[in-house]
Amino acid sequence: KTMQKLKNDIQSYNDEIKQLGEELEQLKAQWQEEMGPEIQQAEKAEKEASKRVVQATTNLSTKEESVKREASQLKKIDDEIQETTKTILATKKEKEKAEEAYKQVQEQAEKMEQQLRNCTNRVELMKSGVATSEDGSSLTEKLMECQSKRTKARTTIT
């Protein structure tokens, strides 16, 4: 009797397990039926998101390359600006030196012009008989000396 009771209990448990298995399969089928479209939609959304990530990564790479090219161009422009600045500064220094040299030549030319005027005035005074040369040289020698100074002064000025 006890053995029979055990067999019946085991059979009852087996039937119950079998029924639970069937219920589980039904629940699983029902869940898949209800959740299937949502799962498919979620999978589709995940694939779309993945595509967008790939596209964004590609866009980012493209933009990075563009930024690198622009940075390279800006570097070239900056280098050109620096070279131009150096050239301008060097030219400015050369101009200042040239202006200083011109100023010195101008001063020397003005001195020669003054000497020429003085010499010409002396010759005019000598011609009129008011004055004679300090060293006693002739009027012709003084004229030639003045002409020589005049030529030298004009050459320097030009």
Topology:
Elements: H1 2-128, H2 139-157
Helix pairs in contact: 1-2
Describe the structure.
By secondary structure, the chain is mostly helical. It has 2 helices and no strands. The protein has helices at about 1-130, 140-155. It is rod-shaped.
Task: Supply the key terms.
single chain; mainly alpha; 158 residues; 92% helix
Report the end-to-end length measured between terminal Cα atoms.
146 Å
Largest sheet: none
What does the radius of gyration come to?
56 Å
Low-confidence stretches: none
**Class per helix and strand makeup:** mainly alpha
- Average pLDDT value? 85
Q: What is the 3D form?
A: rod-shaped
SS strand fraction:
under 5%
Q: Please count the beta strands (DSSP E, at least 2 residues each).
A: 0
One letter per element, helices H and strands E, the order comes to HH
Number of helices: 2
Helix proportion: over 70%
Write a brief structural summary.
This protein is an all-alpha fold and 158 residues long.
